[in-house]
Design brief:
By secondary structure, this protein is mainly α. It has one domain. The radius of gyration is 16 Å and the shape is globular. It starts with a helix and ends with a helix.
Length: about 180
């Protein structure tokens, strides 16, 4: 019973953490030109997809829809953007998981691919709607690369902490 509540509680804590994360960084890392977007919820959901979900379960995608809506309501102001982008990307990563091994270097690569997909989709959606008006080269240099680096740095300790637990819970779920 408590495990069913653990994923939403962790995801909610990450939702709150994303809001204060940039305030905790030194000012030199958050200059006026550099924009770091914490995708901590996506990173944790990706670990759920890679190490908890199997080929017939979609907990990561379902939580992606739910917490995508929360992100849209709390931080974005345009309802539906993250609700669409997160689950779509998580589903693509679940398909990619079938082709690759589940180890640390592959997890890093898959997370980088996922963050790139998310950020490019967000860039195109926000450009189409008229919220963002920057050149792609500026976007890549000042938003995409810092965002990838920050989220991979967040992934490393989260991977170490949660991988074995997620694998164990997945095995227990299959035994039921």
């Amino acid at each position: 019973m408590i495990r069913r509540l653990l994923f939403p509680l962790v995801l909610f804590a990450l939702l709150v953490g994303e809001g204060i994360a940039l305030d905790l960084l030194p000012n030199i890392l958050t200059s006026a030109e550099t924009l770091i977007v914490p995708h901590w919820i996506f990173v944790f959901l990706l670990l759920i997809v890679l190490f908890y979900d199997n080929s017939s379960t979609f907990y990561g995608v379902i939580y992606g829809i739910i917490f995508g809506i929360f992100i849209d309501m709390v931080y974005v102001g345009v309802l539906g953007v993250y609700m669409f982008v997160y689950p779509l990307t998580l589903y693509m990563m679940q398909l990619l998981k079938r082709l690759l091994q589940n180890n640390f270097p592959i997890t890093i690569i898959i997370s980088i691919i996922g963050i790139i997909i998310i950020e490019i989709l967000l860039y195109f959606i926000y450009t189409f709607v008229g919220i963002v008006d920057v050149a792609m080269s500026y976007f890549i240099l000042h938003r995409l690369l810092p965002t990838i680096l920050a989220n991979v740095l967040f992934l490393i300790p989260l991977f170490i902490i949660s991988r074995n637990t997620l694998i164990e819970w997945s095995r227990e779920q299959l035994e039921r």
